[in-house]
UniProtKB/TrEMBL annotation:
Keyword Signal assigned: no
Pfam families named in the record: HMGL-like (PF00682)
Keyword Nucleotidyltransferase: no
Name the record gives this protein: hydroxymethylglutaryl-CoA lyase
Source organism (scientific name): Alteromonas hispanica
Keyword field: Lyase, Metal-binding
Domain Pyruvate carboxyltransferase, chain residue ranges per copy: 7-274
Enzyme Commission number: 4.1.3.4
Length: 299
């Protein structure tokens, strides 16, 4: 187990970050935000979600987003597609990569997508199969990997089982999500010890929320295992509507500062990232939760 020399940052702010904002962010503002992110050196941006506007009104305009952004051929712009209807809309919009969103907790699965884990996996099968026939890569999210707001601690073996099922269905990558941010470095290592028995390290990403201030130390633990893909959100945007008190994603600025200090390359320009941070923070009228952003923007 050695630290990676290069880490891929998946910027989830435009989707996972903005979807929980109560005030609707306009199409123009979202497009401007993504265009600013595209200039930072980030190579993977989760730009939208093709879900029912009834459940996630903030994402109702994802089709307009994908047609309006200035796409760079070197960047992958992805979208969440929980069902065939969403996938069809994504295909029509020219999306290159999609994601399905499962859980390692039965209770969370019922609250979040109104079905059991087994039922959710069966619903994902045709989505993944159809995406693969269109040469669209599919990413699999597994939420509540270290804790659930309803069940408490989650067994690493339960996470490993869902992760393997998604890989076997055709997902090329699994993003392990500490949705409510309760994980610790020891729990992170225990999780990876289990999941790595069934999923290759090159197929794993980590997606940590910072509710208890543990995200960076948990990421360090994952880096020690060789995990080289990290999900984060500019300004620490995000949260979880089904997890009371859950704060946003680990901030991209904080992750980048840590990786820079470790000599790990991401290809991301901090100054250009801060331009995107300042823009979206003003749009949502919030101070960034990123300590690095607040320190650097105050200069």
């Amino acid at each position: 187990m050695t630290m990676p020399k290069v880490v891929s940052i998946v910027e989830v702010g435009p989707r996972d970050g903005l979807q929980n904002e109560k005030s609707i962010v306009s199409v123009e503002e979202k497009i401007n935000f993504i265009n600013l992110l595209s200039k930072t050196g980030i190579k993977r941006i989760e730009a939208g979600s093709f879900v029912s506007p009834k459940w996630v009104p903030q994402m109702a305009d994802s089709g307009d987003i994908f047609s309006g952004i200035e796409k760079s051929p070197s960047i992958t712009y992805s979208a969440l597609t929980p069902n065939i209807k969403g996938l069809d809309a994504a295909i029509e919009s020219g999306v290159e990569e999609v994601a399905v969103f499962g859980a390692a907790s039965e209770s969370f699965s019922m609250k979040n997508i109104n079905c059991s884990i087994e039922e959710s996996l069966k619903k994902f099968e045709p989505v993944i199969a159809k995406a693969n026939t269109h040469n669209i890569k599919v990413r699999g999210y597994v939420s509540c990997v270290m804790g659930c707001p309803y069940e408490g601690e989650i067994s690493p073996s339960a996470v490993a089982d869902v992760s393997k099922r998604l890989i076997d269905m055709g997902c090329y990558e699994i993003s392990l999500g500490d949705t409510i941010g309760t994980g610790t470095p020891v729990a992170t290592k225990r999780l990876l010890d289990s999941v790595l028995n069934v999923v290759n390290i090159k197929q794993l990403a980590v997606h940590f929320h910072d509710t208890y201030g543990q995200a960076l130390v948990n990421l360090y633990s994952a880096l020690e295992y060789g995990v080289a893909t990290i999900d984060s959100a500019v300004a620490g945007l995000g949260g979880c509507p089904y997890a009371r008190g859950a704060s946003g994603n680990v901030a991209t600025e904080d992750v980048l500062y840590m990786l820079n200090g470790m000599g790990i390359n991401t290809g991301i320009d901090m100054e250009k990232l801060l331009v995107a941070t300042q823009f979206i923070s003003e749009v949502v009228n919030k101070v960034p939760s990123s300590k690095v952003a607040n320190a650097l923007l105050a200069r």
